[in-house]
Specification:
It is built from 10 helices and 35 strands. Helix 5 runs parallel beside helix 7 and helix 9 runs parallel beside helix 10. It is globular. Helices cover about 15% and strands about 30% of the residues. The chain is an alpha+beta fold. Strands 3-15-18-19-20-21-22-23 form an 8-stranded parallel beta sheet. The chain starts with a helix and ends in a 17-residue tail after the last strand. Strand 10 and strand 11 form a beta hairpin. It binds alpha-L-arabinofuranose. This is non-reducing end alpha-L-arabinofuranosidase. InterPro entries: Alpha-L-AF_C, ASD1_cat, Galactose-bd-like_sf, GH, Glyco_hydro_b, Glycosyl_Hydrolase_51. GO terms for molecular function: alpha-L-arabinofuranosidase activity. It is found in: Secreted, Extracellular space, Extracellular matrix.
Length: about 675
């Protein structure tokens, strides 16, 4: 071949290789094995402590996370308020049993509850005898809950409702399965219902169906008013109203904090619909509920401010309350008019922290929590920094809160990673939603952030877009790379949480999410499982490490102690965001082989055959961490890192010389 042609061929081939390398789509796995090395010092001084609250949860009332999710109430629109305060109103999802010849159903404003006046009126036209005989089973209404109620054999459910009638009432209250089978039932007869009366009963199910409904029926000609109909399983977490399986999946992450109640939900599309803590406390029957106009659904506010604080306490996580500072997505209160909002927030803090004799603390005590909640963080607004009134209103909130509660840490919406803030703050909120490549490369985002200003609270991060599917391995790996970067920068990053946390599969308002559920089942996406490998980091010691590798690899190392077992470990986490297998040479200084307990050392791998793989109700753990014994664990060893994988190498130390200080209560196993 002539040299000029040979040169062309070489050039073309090189271009092909370069193009292949750079344009290689995610998921292409090659046979080539590359090498990389990671060296670290296990006895570095001074120790670099990672925040006790580094990794936690961002809970938002989105995707029916609370109403129809973590909050175990089975009845949707229990007070008939979802159709608005004016009547006649839409009572959906309530449905009429019977036809117009047998029953007329409407709403009026005759409720005994001042804050939610709408009640249901049933005019029963049929009877047990006479000309117009009621159909078998009677007439009335039923509520399907949130895409079906999960009724389980042997379980007990507290049903409460308010009733009034011009005649004595005779009613049946039943759970009915999807094949119209009765799962539990109770009858009431009452002559004394001329005034509103509370009826309470416990139904024990003798059958199971995840797609059940609650029905209230009668076969007696009468006019009956109903209001505030509730059905709650008795086995909620600690009796606090949290659906146990959804609580458990959160608790398994050992979250350092929980941010609530949003997100954009805090802002509201319109201020009139924004979360208002005061309307969510006290007796559930008195809560007016709200239309979640950002995510377009009604919530009865069973999960209110008190319950959020209780949830944080039950999870052993610091509550981070995001407060609306007079700014919705479409409106802004003028700063000159903001003081009532400020006072409202001071009242809320007193509700959480005041002693039981204080004005607001006594309201909390009346709800059954005598001791104050441990509220230490208040975030001022959500994604509002760019808005005209933000700084002015923020300062009013900041000064007022610090004046009364100097220890409370206030979180600004303004990004201090790139520029010095023009206002005081203890932390700054940082959100990132981006594609997988950019998320992975954001591992370096905080490398050059100022070391002097407030620390970052990365309260929302997620890979979004079509490539993330409904939460696949690719998403999780890119996010794991990002979190490794946060961990390495834990001197300037205090806390981090992925978002959104939950999705009820029947009403996804934001995709993808970390945890998927329906009325009876739940599974974690790879993003959820990825976070398990970070839970040991809360309160751990960051070890400096030097990585020599292709740019598709990132790694961090910590030293941590399991508070339960007292055992100490070196944990090395590595994300391989490329299609090549790697041989990683690990060299640990300051740890001799005699002090490694090989039998207790493990290698945990999160990967799958296809980087686009997802979990599902049928295969809930298709992509989940797999733990293997690490044979021949040593301070110098080579570990094979599979393509598109996240691994955690845990070397157990023989002597527990570094306990207590970094004890974080995390088990070696998942
Ligand atoms: O996490 C979903 C939404 O994304 C949040 O409500 C908002 O803060 C962000 O834009």
């Amino acid at each position: 071949m002539e040299p000029k042609y040979a040169a062309c061929v070489v050039l073309a081939f090189s271009l092909m290789v370069i193009t292949t390398y750079y344009l290689q789509p995610h998921g292409v796995v090659t046979d080539a094995t590359q090498t990389a090395s990671l060296s670290l010092n296990a006895s570095q001084s001074p120790a670099k402590k990672i925040s006790q609250r580094m990794f936690g949860l961002a809970f938002e009332e989105i995707n029916h996370s609370g109403a129809g999710g973590l909050w175990a109430e089975l009845v949707s629109n229990r007070g008939f308020e979802a159709g608005g305060p004016n009547t006649p109103s839409n009572i959906s999802p309530w449905t009429i049993i019977g036809n117009e010849a047998s029953i007329l159903v409407s709403t009026d404003r005759s409720s005994c509850f001042d804050k939610n006046k709408v009640a249901l009126q049933m005019e029963v036209l049929c009877d047990v005898d006479g000309e117009n005989i009621c159909p078998a089973g009677g007439v009335g209404v039923y509520n399907p809950g949130y895409w079906g109620m999960n009724i389980e054999k042997g379980k007990r459910y507290r049903v409460v409702f308010y009733v009034r009638s011009l005649q004595p009432v005779e009613m049946s209250i039943s759970f009915i399965g999807s094949k119209d089978q009765k799962l539990a039932t109770s009858d009431i007869k009452d002559d004394n219902v001329a005034e509103w009366k509370k009826v309470e009963m416990v139904l024990e199910a003798y059958g199971s169906d995840a797609n059940s409904r609650l029905q209230l029926t009668t076969s007696k000609r009468s006019t009956i008013w109903l209001d505030q109909v509730s059905a709650l399983p008795l086995d909620t977490h600690n009796g606090h109203g949290f659906r146990q399986d959804l609580f458990d999946i959160l608790a398994a992450l050992k979250p350092g904090f929980i941010r609530f109640p949003g997100g954009s939900y805090v802002e509201g599309d319109r201020l009139m619909n924004a979360f208002r803590w005061r309307e969510t406390i006290g007796a559930w029957e008195e809560r007016p509920g709200r239309f979640n106009d950002v995510w377009q659904y009604w919530t009865d506010d069973g999960l209110g401010y008190f319950e959020y604080l209780q949830l944080a306490e039950d999870l052993g996580a610091s509550p981070i309350w995001v407060v609306n500072i007079g700014i919705s997505i479409n409106e802004q209160v003028d700063t000159s008019l903001i003081m009532p909002f400020v006072q409202d927030t001071l009242d809320a803090i007193e509700f959480a922290r005041g002693d039981a004799s204080s004005t607001m603390g006594s309201a909390r005590a009346a709800m059954g929590h005598l001791e104050p909640f441990d509220l230490q963080y208040v975030a001022a607004g959500n994604q509002d920094c760019w808005k005209k009134n933000y700084r002015g209103s923020y300062m009013k909130f900041y000064n007022a809160i610090k004046g009364v509660y100097p220890d409370i840490k206030i979180i600004t919406n303004c990004d201090a990673s790139a520029a010095v803030l023009d206002h005081p703050a203890d932390l700054y909120d940082y959100h990132v939603y981006t594609n997988a490549n950019s998320m992975f490369s954001m591992a370096h985002n905080f490398d050059h952030a100022s070391r002097n200003g407030p620390k970052a609270f990365v309260s929302e991060y997620a890979v979004t877009g079509g490539e993330a599917g409904r939460g696949n391995l690719l998403k999780a790996l890119a996010e794991a790379g990002f979190l490794i970067g946060l961990e390495r920068n834990s001197d300037v990053v205090e806390m981090a949480s992925s978002a959104p946390l939950f999705v009820n599969v029947n009403n996804q308002r934001f995709n993808p999410d970390a945890i998927v559920f329906d009325s009876s089942k739940v599974y974690g996406t790879p993003t959820y499982w990825m976070q398990h490998l970070f839970k040991a980091s809360n309160g751990a010691t960051l070890l400096d490490s030097t990585l020599q590798s292709p740019s598709s690899l990132t790694a961090s190392a910590i030293s941590w102690t399991d508070a339960d077992s007292g055992r100490s470990y070196i944990r090395v986490k590595v994300v391989n965001f490329g299609g090549n297998r790697l041989n990683l040479r690990l060299a640990i200084e300051g740890l001799d082989n005699k002090s490694i307990e090989s039998a207790g050392s493990t290698l945990t791998t999160l990967t799958s055959t296809n980087v686009k793989d997802e979990n599902s109700f049928n295969e809930p753990k298709k992509v989940a961490p797999v733990i293997n014994a690490l044979k021949n664990a040593s301070n110098k060893m080579t570990v094979i890192i599979p393509p598109y994988s996240f691994i955690s190498i845990d070397l157990q130390r023989k002597s527990n010389v570094i306990q207590d200080a970094e004890s974080n209560g995390v088990h070696a196993s998942l």
